[in-house]
UniProtKB/TrEMBL annotation:
Coiled-coil blocks: none
An example molecular function term from Gene Ontology annotations: deaminated base DNA N-glycosylase activity
UniProt-recorded name of the protein: Uracil-DNA glycosylase
Organism encoding this protein: Halosegnis rubeus
Annotated Uracil-DNA glycosylase-like domain residues: 10-152
SUPFAM superfamilies to which the protein is assigned, alphabetical: Uracil-DNA glycosylase-like
UniProt KW keywords: 4Fe-4S, DNA damage, DNA repair, Hydrolase, Iron, Iron-sulfur, Metal-binding
Swiss-Prot/TrEMBL GO biological process terms: DNA repair
Pfam families: UDG (PF03167)
Length: 186
């Protein structure tokens, strides 16, 4: 399946321990800049938070200087995605998640969190897939720690502070997950 219009591909530190991924540029911005989570209210709120945590040098920029953080989307195409185009693009996100090899996944919004639950944890049927219910609550995954993020445009001050506290606690501790490396012997 082809992406029509400008695509918004992943952006940031390719050696990051933290990987934020959202739905699409249609929902979270970036169509005008080519950078995820920009030119939108969701991007301004998210970038202000990652700046406060020390991941970004500025509180908001169209091309943020990021350290230890990578940003991407399930569907990088312009316009409103369809169920078929989401299904087609998920394989590229999966490859990107594994290539960046972050320890902490931060799916933004319900679609991204449902994707993370299904593909990167074994608790899909046991965990509420709504970020409004699970916001900033760590979920152990298969090689990843998943921290669901409620839509930034819906954050209350309590939501923002809860996410900030969760991420600060992780940064102050040993957040790295044990990852297996597949090898063949013989």
């Amino acid at each position: 399946m082809r992406i029509d219009g400008p695509a918004v591909y992943g952006y940031g530190d390719a050696n990051a321990d933290f990987h934020v991924f959202g739905d699409s540029p249609a929902r979270h911005g970036g169509t005008a800049t080519g950078v995820p989570f920009t030119d939108s209210e969701a991007g301004r709120r998210l970038q202000a938070l990652v700046h406060e945590l020390g991941f970004a040098t500025d509180a908001y920029a169209d091309e943020p200087d990021l350290s230890n953080l990578y940003l991407s989307y399930i569907h990088p195409g312009d316009g409103e995605p369809t169920p078929a185009s989401y299904a087609d693009q998920e394989r590229f996100l999966d490859a990107e998640l594994r290539a960046i090899n972050a320890h902490i996944l931060l799916p933004v919004g319900d679609r991204a969190f449902a994707y993370a639950l299904e593909h990167h944890t074994s608790v899909r049927g046991k965990t509420d897939p709504r970020t409004s219910e699970m916001h900033a609550t760590p979920v152990r995954g298969r090689g990843f720690l998943v921290i669901p993020v409620k839509e930034p445009t819906e954050w209350t001050e309590t939501d923002r502070e809860r996410l900030l506290a969760t991420l600060r606690e992780l940064l102050d501790g040993d957040y790295r997950q044990i990852k297996g490396v597949a090898t063949t012997v013989g």
